[in-house]
Structures are given as C-alpha cells and as structure tokens.
C-alpha cells in the first residue's frame, strides 16, 4: 500500500528526540551542496541533507499537482531552488515559514505522482515519488489528519476600554508566500515594515490599540487572519498589499471593499491572485462554503458592508490628502476572501503597485510611507467619530 503521509520521530538521535519531546526541537539547516531533486526511472527523488534530524511529514495535493514537505524547525537560509532542482518531472520549488517553528517546501509536479517511500536517517531525508494515473493521484492527495498541528497567527491579548478602537492590521503574504517581487523588492517584507510604522503612528494617538496578523516573515492563511481579528475583538480589519498587475493597468493607492462581483477586470485579477496563495500553500479549502453559514453571514453584512464602504471612502480622502496623488478610481470592489469577516468592517489597501516604477519609488521611501500612515491614521479616527454618530442615529 502506498503510504501518503509520513511522520518522522527520530529516536536514534538523543538530542533531536529529547528536543521533540519538549516540543522545542533544535533548528536544522540544509546542506545545499549535497541536496538534490532529480528524475528517476519511475518518477522523482527528493534528497535533502540536513545537519540534524527533525520531525517532518510528506504529502501530495492536487489542482495544481504538488508535493508538500512540512518540517519542524528547518532553516532555509542559503537554499537556492536553481541549485537544488534538476528535474523534468518537477518545477517551481519554493519554501518558507508557515507558522511558529514550522516551515514548508512545495514542489510543483509535472505529472501525477504519489509518495512511494520516505525516510530520514542520519540527517538525509530521502523521498521517492512514483508516477500514477490522475485518478489514483487525486484519491491519494489531501491534507493529512492525525497531527496536532495548525497554522495560526501569533496574537497578543488586547484589553481596551470602550473608547479605544481595536484595529487589526494585516500585512499581506509572508513566509512561503512572498507576494509580488520586483527588482529585489518583496511585497511581504514591505507590507510588514509599513504595518509596523502604521501601528506606531496609530498607537501614538492614544485612541487606538493595534494588533498585527503577523509580526514576522511567516505564512498565515486567509482564514486564520480573520480568526485572529475575531480573537482580538477587532473593531476594524485592514489588509495591506502592494501587488503587481500588467503594465499600465494600475498606479497609486487603492482601497477595496468586498463584493461578490468585481468592479473591474483588474480587481478581479487581484482577488484571484490573493486567494490562490492559500491553495498553493497547501491550505484545505474544502469546508469553506457551508450554505447556512453563508446565509447568516450575508444577513450580518447588511450592517457591516455600509460601514466598510464608509471606511474605504474616508481612507481614500486621507490618502489623497497626505500621500496623493492616488489611483484614478481609488475605491474598488472585489471578492477578496480576507475581507469576509461578516461582523467586522474590513478593507484591503493596495498601498501602491510594484509593477509601476513611480509606486515602487514611493513604497521604498520612509518619508512617503510616513505620509501614507498619517493619512490612514487620520481617516481611521474620522471614521470612528462618524461611525459612532451613525450608530446613535440608528438606535434613536
């Protein structure tokens, strides 16, 4: 029988096994010179030489076809896909952090293949994949069960009085999903830097408490970002991005709110790009469409959606005032999954587009980012005042 999931608890190495028992295994590193991904007669071989053994699991996922390897405490520093990958049966190797102490390697497969054999001995992780037909591959490919492990957002507890706004800032992408990359710039890094800068400015007002969905270069699934906002009892959810679109399609800051139908083609492309990151990273989306839950959420959004639109409109004014000029159509709509918290006003800000040279220059400028942070901060405070006034009108 083909074993599709393998968990390695390494008892032969005293240090590694003792560390695993305490749930604090020491970090391993990859010996790039001795590691390889190569074709075999029957499929594919992945040979990763590690300087110490760590717990791992291996499985495959479909649509797109890919091999996933999860590791406890593995550092990918210095690993270059072009050096390790030398195979016709595989392409597009990527890796990065996906949670506290966990990392993931993903390898796109050129044909249906399942894990036929996997061992970790003496620091060598040896995984053999065997070619199968598509039906067999689809049946064998899913997120494994039986492991007490999840990807989640680190979150500090927020205690706030009734007059202080709790804002959840969501720096887009991270870890295994770097987002847009242009000329050495990485969207995930830029948005984390800006989120920290914006947090500092909001906190200085004395009227806002701020929580980040991630405060490190780590992958957080879209659903976990929304869950983090609920755990923090956030009053607002603001996702921060700086994406790419085909040349000439977008320039300047843009604020998005949720809609079932995108307001334009570019917005639809962005929503597809953002939501696909979860799928590529191996997150199980099979239980996302409970019809009863969707109906209840639609009812809740009758109140929340207008508040999100007011927030977007206020943010547009703040950004235009302090960091303009902004996009010619600055408020747009699309079906971003990260905006689907039914009870929390939510927006997604494309601070700029890395596909545009002018926007790239702005995004790299601390002075311009400070102006953008000032515009967002002012807008949030103005929105809060207006939202409270509208709430009193509704009650009366």
Q: Sum up the overall morphology in one term.
A: elongated
> What is the fourth-level CATH superfamily of the largest domain?
Zn-dependent exopeptidases
Indicate how many domains the architecture comprises.
2
Overall CATH architecture of the largest domain: 3-Layer(aba) Sandwich
Largest sheet: 6 strands, mixed
N-to-C terminal Cα separation, in Å?
68 Å
Task: Please list the strands of the largest sheet in the order they lie side by side.
Answer: 16-13-17-20-18-19
By secondary-structure content and strand pairing, the structural class works out as alpha/beta
The arrangement of helices and strands along the chain is EHEEEEEEHEEEEEHEEEHEHEEHHEEHH
Number of strands: 20
CATH first level of the largest domain: Alpha Beta
CATH topology type of the largest domain: Aminopeptidase
Specify the number of helices: 9
Task: Assess the beta-strand content as a share of residues.
Answer: 25-35%
How much is the radius of gyration in Å? 23 Å
Mean pLDDT: 81
Low-confidence stretches: 1-24, 146-157, 285-289, 291-295
Q: What proportion of the residues is helical, as a percent range? A: 25-40%
